[in-house]
């Protein structure tokens, strides 16, 4: 199998944690496998089944370090309900944590932050393993004749 | 979703309870122009437009959104929330179900989870929407008291919309943290009933 690591490939998970470098790198291929350019976005969409809108929220949150739903809705020009649901999805997927913060004038607000880079790496690798095992098992169980010649 | 004949099925995600006539007119129009001219009424109280040719899918989705309709979820997502008409229409109901179901729709419909999650709201213990067979069932007891069931396992009773929302939020988080990929919440609840009740139940039920 032909695999080409781009320079970014050596630092792929630091990219996830590095808030200063902008979203562009997360959409830049970090590895090319059989001429297929793989980005962090591709991996998240494939192994978790996340959507572009959710990945956009995640990347924006990585840039900010931490944020409320209001911050992200404003940054991305999306309505609050959509961003709120995207954040719930990311929390469920294990990529984002949230904490309650008391507001000075009373009440509270949820603050969201991405997991630290090392933990993120583990979460993504575990999901990738599950995805690979599931596809492999399904392929092995396919009836002979479903693919190829009998 | 792709049908065996190569055409697409476009499922809608509808706010639960009642569908405005205007939305029905839009669906009828879109089904005639983009689909086979007929729709399927699903068991989960939504509508599917059938017979959409692949090359027309993108335009249909765009127009759907322009007309205030949302495409529904497939895959590991919270599905269309079902409810009975509740006290707005049914003499047996002990409470109004539609406002609660709509709030759950706002909070959870289409959110990512390890495997599909089905949520149903019923306005009385007769449970016409089968809350005990859903991954999460909410059952009206009257006076804004609600029994929350997870895979048929009762977590005790809650007072008011906020408590129900908070409970379901905690249940889904527990599910996401505990379940392996593709395990349904109701299966996890059957396997871990005791732990579920310990961690998320209340003893006033």
The major pleated sheet of chain B works out as: 5 strands, mixed
Total domain count of chain B: 2
Question: What is the terminal-to-terminal distance of chain B?
Answer: 41 Å
Strand order of the largest sheet of chain B: 4-5-6-7-8
Mean pLDDT of chain B: 94
Outline type of chain B: globular
Write the CATH homologous superfamily of chain A. Answer: Winged helix-like DNA-binding domain superfamily/Winged helix DNA-binding domain
> What is the percentage of strand-forming residues of chain B?
15-25%
Structure, described:
The complex is a heterodimer of chains A (150) and B (205). Chain A is α+β, with helices and mostly antiparallel strands and 150 residues long. Chain A has one domain: Orthogonal Bundle (Arc Repressor Mutant, subunit A). Chain A is 50% helix and 15% strand. Chain A contains 6 helices and 5 strands, in the order βαββααααββα. In chain A, strands 1-2-3 form a 3-stranded antiparallel β-sheet. In chain A, strands 4-5 form a two-stranded antiparallel ribbon. In chain A, helix 2 crosses helix 6 and helix 3 packs across helix 5. The longest helix of chain A is centred in the C-terminal third of the chain and has 25 residues. In chain A, 23% of the residues are buried. About 9% of the residues of chain A have low confidence. Chain B is an alpha/beta fold and 205 residues long. Chain B has 2 domains: 59 residues, Alpha-Beta Plaits (2-Layer Sandwich), CATH 3.30.70; 119 residues, Sulfite Reductase Hemoprotein, domain 1. Helix content of chain B is 34%, strand content 19%. Chain B is built from 6 helices and 8 strands, in the order E-H-E-E-H-E-H-E-E-E-E-H-H-H. In chain B, the strands form 2 sheets. In chain B, strands 4-5-6-7-8 form a 5-stranded mixed β-sheet. Chain B has a 3-stranded antiparallel β-sheet with strand order 1-3-2, covered by helices on one side. In chain B, helix 1 packs antiparallel against helix 2. Chain B is globular, with a radius of gyration of 18 Å. Chain B starts with 7 loop residues before the first strand and ends in a 5-residue tail after the last helix. At the A-B interface, helix 5 and helix 6 of A face helix 4 of B.
